[in-house]
Amino acid sequence: MTRTLLGVWAHPDDETFLSSGLILAARERGDRVVLVTATRGEHGTDDPGRWPPGRLGRLRERELEAALAVLGVDEHRFLGYGDGSCAHAAEPLAARAIATVIEEVRPDTIVTFGPDGVTGHDDHRAVGRWTTRARHRVAPQVELLRAVLAPGFTRRFAAVNEAFGVFMDDPADDVDPGLHLRLEGAQLDRKIEAMLAQDSQTRRLVDGVGLATFRRWWGEEAFLVDRPVAASAAAAV
Ligand SMILES: [Zn+2]
What we know:
The protein is α/β, with parallel strands linked by helices. It has helices at residues 14-28, 53-71, 91-105, 122-138, 153-156, 158-164, 185-196, 199-209, 211-217, 231-236; strands at 4-9, 32-39, 75-81, 109-113, 143-148, 179-182, 220-226.
């Protein structure tokens, strides 16, 4: 039976960094994958003079399309929030928008950010909260995966994490993920290809650490697993 995976993320590239392995495995099984991105990531640059928001947003939309083509995903939609604005948005409305997608798509599994947003980014934390709330309200019977860092990530990649400032807080990698993927071979090749398709976000990282380290850096994915809750039990909460 075909299953459906729904991913809900904050910026173009979050889906690729954090869930390519999950997506590729789903597509290899013939499952449906639908992705939602809250913003166009239009402020994701160190050079806003050269890349004003409108221009960068359009570029990131094209880069995302290219990455999703590599991952075999052809169903995607934006929620239309401004990059950097998610923590200030009305949470009930945002959760409602996601709940509407859940009701339409009827996923078997939902994937989003864990509580610390993985990198500590406020948009990530907000989208994780919205999605968790939406799932609790309209689909508690659906499995929820919440992305976290793989065990040992902080220790193994302390030098590169520090050098590139990807993480806003000290990243937490001390939770025991219920699901831990180690990508290798063709699957890791595809993930890296999808990451490289989002050149505006990954170029400086790849150039900085070299491709071999970059592959190890992002070669694992980990998720907290919130098991389905029977609808009657959820209603009692
Ligand atoms: Zn992001």
